[in-house]
Write a structure and sequence with these properties.
The complex is a heterodimer of chains A (584) and B (185).
Chain A (H helix, E strand, L loop, with lengths): L3 H18 L1 H9 L2 E2 L5 H24 L9 H10 L4 H28 L8 H22 L5 H15 L5 H9 L6 H33 L9 H7 L1 E2 H26 L24 H8 L6 H17 L1 H4 L11 H27 L1 H21 L16 H12 L23 H9 L23 H14 L7 H9 L2 H4 L28 H9 L22 H12 L11
Antiparallel strand pairs in A: 1-2
Helix pairs in contact in A: 3-5, 3-11, 4-5, 5-6, 5-11, 6-9, 7-8, 12-13, 12-15, 17-23, 18-19, 19-20, 22-23
Chain B lengths: L13 H30 L1 H4 L3 E3 L4 E6 L9 E11 L2 E14 L8 E4 L10 E3 L4 E4 L4 E3 L5 E3 L8 E6 L4 E5 L14
Antiparallel strand pairs in B: 1-3, 2-11, 3-4, 4-5, 5-10, 6-7, 7-8, 8-9, 10-11
The chains are: A mainly alpha (584), B alpha+beta (185).
Chain lengths: 584, 185
């Protein structure tokens, strides 16, 4: 590899450094530290956790080069990292999924310590320091989850700080300090950020250093199943046997993390935090058992699930080395501890399973999730143009529809509904072109969502008939919208049965193409619901083809440009339920 | 080998141990490279794709041709939409420029106020009828040429367009500082 001359140069340099710092021999003492009982995969868990901490530090610092903490900038800068920065999605994904891997591996390490009885005298402090480090990792996860300031992060944090505020006596005070004010704002993000990138890394570094120091001082105990002779025979230095296992386990973890990043197309980033939305918050994965537990504790009992039970479990786990004072490390001789660990794992698994199955079978919730996912894609596309300085949900102002919706709000919103609640003086427009809207109208034209608010003197009467007849009639009107999914046989049925005449529709309305130029007391329904139809309606509701002199709505011809009318019509015919944020 | 083995214990499996050492060190180096390289890519993103973009199109500077009198430069702000990383600001001050007309009936020229020497702001020294960057005392004439001082090139001229109504539009740019060559950044 290297010539003798250069080799000796290197050795000279090493001795020079050794004389002045002692670092080479320190490194050497780590690499040659004897492992009683030899290298093992079990032992790799702790070091893999340490390597994953390093990975989190690295990816975290990298993101700090591009992330900006404030309620206005957090989401937009995260979206920039995720969607525009070179390798940004990978780095953020590794940071996000890596944190899951880290908590899992660190948890498994502590579980292994518990199973192997490695917390026993004189290693009580190792156990406590390790647990504290795990708590700090959870603190990282809790504070980090809110930093993108997207819907899921915002609402998860809102619930958690609300839990904090229910702490007896000091709750409200703590809550205000955490939030940095009486409500969520810039300081909430900045506080989470400061905790996540300054406070916790410092605390974790201290704890990890202490943990390593204590580990060296007391050495890892050999497995309980080895007798002393085997332990001695198998004892080997850390490097390379254990180092290879550590690195391999880290490589596998990294591979799994990267696979997740690729499969999930990066870490999730939902639409920006919208304090006015009805977002259905779900806890982060590690809090699911507690969340499910809380489901069974209502009212004054709530605090039992959110604070008392976690505190008791925590206290017992911390006190484990003092509760389990038997000499033997063999699990067989520690039935109480094994029972505790097993029942803890079973309860966690059961609670998590109930949670997962319940959500999986909750159809409205799943639909809501799909909607959020679609909305995320849309809004992140809008963010590529750059988000206005007001930030967050003002990204919706990049939407070409935004101006049209503003116009709608100004010109139409006073009378008409847009969100499914019904209007004050005119019909609802949400899903105006759906079968449900048309069928509802036929059944109850003077209903809350239809002409009811308009309070017409001689309005249309409900259409009476069998469900089949109504469905056929609905389809006939629906066909006029030009929708691609018209059921032709139903329309044919309606026409064959001459339902339009039979139900007396024809005394006020026309619908056939042949009659398209004819006015009547009710609107001519030919091509009802097309953009052109709606535009004509907006222009002149009192046209003889529309409501004629019975029209209550003012015409907008001359008040709006033809282009504006066209845009409004396009939006109205295509209007599906808008998100709260998209409607200005 | 990256680990200095000071007290390598002699043993019968020396050869196997040596191989394992090489494999382990190699795996460590490989993993180090795998986690570092994407990070380097992330950091050099601004070299690959600019994160700041604004003012390249001619923008109305709020002055008409007539308002610029011969020999009396006027400083105006150039305002427009700026896209800066994740943020889009519709109306922000992108920079400023001097509008100059040398003689009657000459077209109006625009010079950036940024001094090509080290980026200070160039002022008009009315007494001397010259431009002056007071940071390091570079003087420029009405055509933007260096009269004296350390600036490696003359003032940077910006493209000027006239609207049909005679209003001045300036395409604001920034140029590399400290070089003799005028180069857009």
């Amino acid at each position: 590899m290297s010539s003798p001359a250069s080799r000796s140069k290197v050795q000279q340099l090493i001795s020079w450094i050794e004389d002045r710092t002692g670092l080479p021999s320190l490194l050497d003492s780590f690499m040659n530290a004897p492992l009683p009982g030899g290298a093992s995969v079990w032992r790799a868990l702790g070091n893999t956790a340490l390597l994953l901490v390093g990975l989190e530090f690295l990816t975290g610092v990298l993101m700090a080069f591009y992330y900006s903490p404030s309620a206005a900038a957090a989401w937009a800068s995260t979206a920039f990292i995720e969607d525009q920065l070179w390798f940004g999605s990978l780095i953020r994904g590794v940071h996000s999924f890596g944190s899951v891997a880290l908590i899992v591996v660190a948890g498994l390490h502590l579980l292994q310590v518990a199973l192997f009885g490695a917390y026993k005298k004189p290693r009580e402090t190792n156990w406590i320091v390790g647990l504290l480090a795990l708590l700090v990792l959870l603190g990282f996860a809790l504070s980090g989850y809110g930093l993108p300031w997207d819907q899921s992060g915002y609402w998860a944090k809102l619930v958690e700080t609300s839990i904090v505020s229910t702490t007896p006596v000091v709750g409200p005070m703590l809550d205000t300090i955490v939030k940095g004010g009486s409500q969520y704002g810039h300081y909430t993000v900045v506080h989470f950020y400061a905790v996540h990138v300054f406070v916790l890394p410092a605390v974790l570094s201290l704890l990890v250093t202490l943990y390593i120091y204590l580990g060296r001082r007391h050495k890892t105990p050999p497995p309980w199943w080895m007798n002393e002779a085997t332990v001695l025979a198998r004892t080997e230095p850390y490097f390379p046997g254990q180092a290879l296992r550590d690195l391999s386990m880290f490589a596998i973890s990294l591979g799994i993390v990267v696979a997740f990043v690729v499969l999930k197309k990066g870490a999730p980033l939902e639409p920006p935090a919208d304090p006015t939305s009805n977002y259905v918050a779900r806890p982060e994965w590690y809090a699911i058992p507690l969340y499910q537990l809380r489901m069974y504790m209502e009212g004054p009992l709530e605090i039992v699930a959110t604070m008392i039970i976690p505190s008791i479990i925590g206290a017992v786990v911390f006190a484990l080395p003092f509760l389990d004072r038997s000499i033997s490390r063999s699990p067989a001789k520690r039935p109480m501890v094994m029972f505790g660990i097993t029942s803890g794992l079973v309860v966690t698994a059961v609670l998590s399973t109930i949670f997962v199955r319940k959500d999986a079978n909750d159809e409205p919730f799943q639909k809501e999730r799909l909607k959020v996912a679609a909305e995320s894609i849309h809004v992140r596309e809008l963010a590529k143009r750059g988000v206005l300085p007001s930030g967050g949900i003002d990204v919706y102002k990049n939407d070409p529809q935004y101006e049209v919706l503003s116009l709608y709000k100004e010109k139409c919103g006073n009378c008409h509904g847009l969100n499914g609640q019904g209007g004050d003086e005119g019909p609802e427009f949400f899903d105006y072109n759906s079968r449900a809207w048309i069928a509802g109208f036929l059944k109850d034209p003077q209903g809350r969502l239809y002409m009811g608010p308009a309070k017409k003197a001689k309005g249309m009467k409900p259409v009476e008939g069998t469900p089949e007849e109504l469905a056929a009639l609905t389809e006939m009107v629906y066909a006029e919208t030009g929708a691609p999914d018209v059921k032709k046989e139903l329309v044919k049925k309606a026409k064959d049965g001459d339902l339009f005449a039979e139900k007396d529709c024809d005394s006020c309305h026309y619908i056939d193409e042949g009659d398209k130029a004819l006015g009547n007391t009710g609107p001519n329904l030919f091509q009802r619901g097309t953009v052109d139809y709606v535009a004509r309606l907006i222009d002149a509701p009192d046209h003889e083809l529309m409501y004629g002199e019975k029209a209550k709505m003012p015409g907008f011809k001359g008040k709006l440009t033809p282009e504006q009318v066209h845009q409004l019509a396009v939006v109205l015919v295509g209007l599906k339920r808008p998100t709260a944020a998209a409607a200005p | 080998m990256f680990v200095p083995m000071l007290n390598d214990a002699p043993g019968k499996t020396d050869e196997r141990r040596g191989f394992l050492q090489a494999v382990t060190a190699g795996l460590g180096a490989l993993l180090g490279a795998i986690v570092t390289l994407p990070g380097v890519a992330l950091l050099v993103h601004p070299l690959r794709k600019d994160t700041v973009d604004g003012g390249k199109d001619p923008l109305d500077v709020g002055a008409s041709e007539k308002q610029v009198k011969p020999g009396e430069p006027v400083m105006v702000d150039v305002r427009g939409e700026l896209k800066d990383a994740w943020m889009r600001t519709p109306d922000v001050k992108l920079g400023a420029c001097w509008l100059v007309r040398e003689k009657e009936n000459d077209p109006v020229k625009a010079f950036s106020t940024v001094c090509p020497h080290l980026g200070c702001g160039i002022d008009w020294a009315a007494k001397k009828n010259q431009f002056l960057c007071a940071c390091h005392n570079t003087y420029f004439d009405l055509q933007g040429k260096v009269l004296e001082g350390p600036s490696p090139r003359g003032m940077d001229e910006l493209d000027v367009k006239l609207s049909p109504e005679g209003r001045l539009k300036v395409a604001y740019r920034r140029f590399r500082i400290g070089s003799a060559k005028k180069e857009v950044v």
